[in-house]
From TrEMBL:
<dbReference type="Pfam" id="PF07992">
    <property type="entry name" value="Pyr_redox_2"/>
</dbReference>
<dbReference type="GO" id="GO:0016491">
    <property type="term" value="F:oxidoreductase activity"/>
</dbReference>
<keyword id="KW-0963">Cytoplasm</keyword>
<dbReference type="InterPro" id="IPR036188">
    <property type="entry name" value="FAD/NAD-bd_sf"/>
</dbReference>
<dbReference type="InterPro" id="IPR050260">
    <property type="entry name" value="FAD-bd_OxRdtase"/>
</dbReference>
<comment type="similarity">
    <text>Belongs to the FAD-dependent oxidoreductase family.</text>
</comment>
<keyword id="KW-0520">NAD</keyword>
<keyword id="KW-0560">Oxidoreductase</keyword>
<protein>
    <submittedName>
        <fullName>FAD-dependent pyridine nucleotide-disulfide oxidoreductase</fullName>
    </submittedName>
</protein>
<feature type="domain" description="Rubredoxin binding">
    <location>
        <begin position="311"/>
        <end position="379"/>
    </location>
</feature>
<keyword id="KW-0285">Flavoprotein</keyword>
<dbReference type="InterPro" id="IPR023753">
    <property type="entry name" value="FAD/NAD-binding_dom"/>
</dbReference>
<dbReference type="InterPro" id="IPR041364">
    <property type="entry name" value="Rbx-bd"/>
</dbReference>
<dbReference type="GO" id="GO:0005737">
    <property type="term" value="C:cytoplasm"/>
</dbReference>
<keyword id="KW-0274">FAD</keyword>
<dbReference type="Pfam" id="PF18113">
    <property type="entry name" value="Rbx_binding"/>
</dbReference>
<feature type="domain" description="FAD/NAD(P)-binding">
    <location>
        <begin position="4"/>
        <end position="282"/>
    </location>
</feature>
Length: 385
């Protein structure tokens, strides 16, 4: 019996394997990963200091423990070089494996800025636990960290670092933090709270280069010719779905690997979920949608070819941003035709995005206003019902 092969051992890969094993304990399963295969909860990385955890503390189970729990084979430090759809095979550097069904769960890759300078190779990008180990190894007590990007990850790291004795500067070409997710009033509330905590903001200015500055320090130059002196530079400008290997195999890709609500790709024996997948036109690289997909796909893979595949549903799944000095809950509207209606009291912002008929299509809550989350979740429409 050819196995089900899952490429990726992050939250998506391990979650779909767990869900599959709830329904099928016999079919062989192989998971392949480029890293050490440790199981961890990725959102914990950007608040590890707040949880008083080291990188080692974030590991929930080793690859060996996961293999035993799932009754599966976990192949670590292996790179998939190609997918042969006709032969139903994945090609590794030193091996070729045949699959019955293939699941692509390899996640997304950090966007890499095109920067000048002789120190661009020293810029940290934290997209997994291995990256985070390296980043933490370079953090000395009182280090000044320059963060490139004021999106979700940049703001969460700024919050975590500033509250634990580090100096933090954040640069972003946008005019306010979280500009891709929230209206200006909500972003300004986060900016105000983090500035009060000590974050030095450089908004409206893009980084242009990173240079060695002597004494193991770096100069981060901005487009207004100013610069930030820092001990550590962290790039957090966003993610892009990993699509290259799928595209090379002839699968349909757009913002992610294109799948329908059954999570099948343009090949009937290949599925995708998580940060690499675009589900029915939606690319939502967040935990809530991922878990919905894992539950649906686990049942589908176990049901067999003659069964009707499950269709994923996305209820109202707001994004929780862990800027604890000013927490944020946002449900971005899918349809941008409408307007924000804002009420603000200091750093507490209550924002409603309504369409032309006055119907709620999205919302944002910050600070004390987050206490109203349940009311908004009840009122807001599901993303995929």
């Amino acid at each position: 019996m050819d196995p089900i092969i899952i490429i990726g051992t992050g939250l998506a890969g391990y979650s779909v394997a767990r869900e599959f094993r709830k329904h099928d304990t016999e079919t062989p399963v192989i998971l392949i990963t480029r890293d050490d295969g440790a199981s961890y909860y990725k959102p914990d990385i950007s608040e590890a200091h707040a949880k008083d955890k080291t990188p080692a503390d974030l590991v929930q189970k080793t690859a060996e423990e996961m293999a035993e729990m799932l009754d599966a084979t976990v192949r670590t430090h292996e790179q998939v070089e190609a997918i042969d759809r006709e032969a139903h095979q994945v090609k590794l550097a030193s091996d070729t494996l045949t699959y019955s069904k293939l699941v692509l769960a390899w996640g997304a890759d950090p966007i890499v800025l095109n920067l000048a300078g002789d120190a661009t190779d020293r810029i940290h990008k934290v997209n997994n636990l291995m990256d985070y180990r390296v980043f933490r190894d370079h953090l000395a007590a009182g280090s000044h960290v320059a963060i490139l990007g004021a999106g979700l990850i940049g703001c969460e790291f700024a919050n975590d670092l500033i509250q634990h004795g580090y100096k933090v500067s954040v640069a972003d070409p946008a005019g306010w933090p979280l500009a891709q997710l929230v209206p200006e009033a909500a972003g300004d509330a986060v900016k105000t709270a983090l500035a009060h905590a000590g974050v030095d903001w450089h908004l409206g200015h893009a980084a242009t280069g990173v240079h060695h500055g002597g004494d193991d320090r770096y100069h981060v130059y901005l487009d207004d010719e100013s610069h930030i002196d820092a001990d550590v530079v962290l790039s957090a400008v966003g993610l892009k779905a990993g699509t290259e290997l799928a595209e090379a195999a002839g699968l349909d890709v757009d913002r992610g690997i294109v799948v329908d609500r059954t999570l099948v790709t343009s090949d009937p024996d290949i599925y995708a979920l998580g940060d690499c997948a675009e589900v029915a036109g939606h690319w939502r690289p967040y935990v809530g949608p991922l878990m919905q997909c894992a539950r649906t796909l686990g049942k589908t893979l176990a049901a067999g070819a003659d069964a009707e595949p499950g269709q994923v549903k996305y209820p109202t799944l707001p994004i929780i941003i862990k800027t604890h000095v000013c927490p944020v809950i946002v449900y971005p509207p899918v349809d941008k035709h409408g307007e924000w209606q804002i009420e603000r009291d200091g750093t507490a912002v209550e924002g409603r995005f309504v369409d032309g008929d006055g119907q709620l299509r999205g919302f944002v809550l910050t600070d004390e206003a987050t206490n109203k989350r349940r009311d908004y979740i009840k009122e807001a429409p599901a993303l995929l019902d």
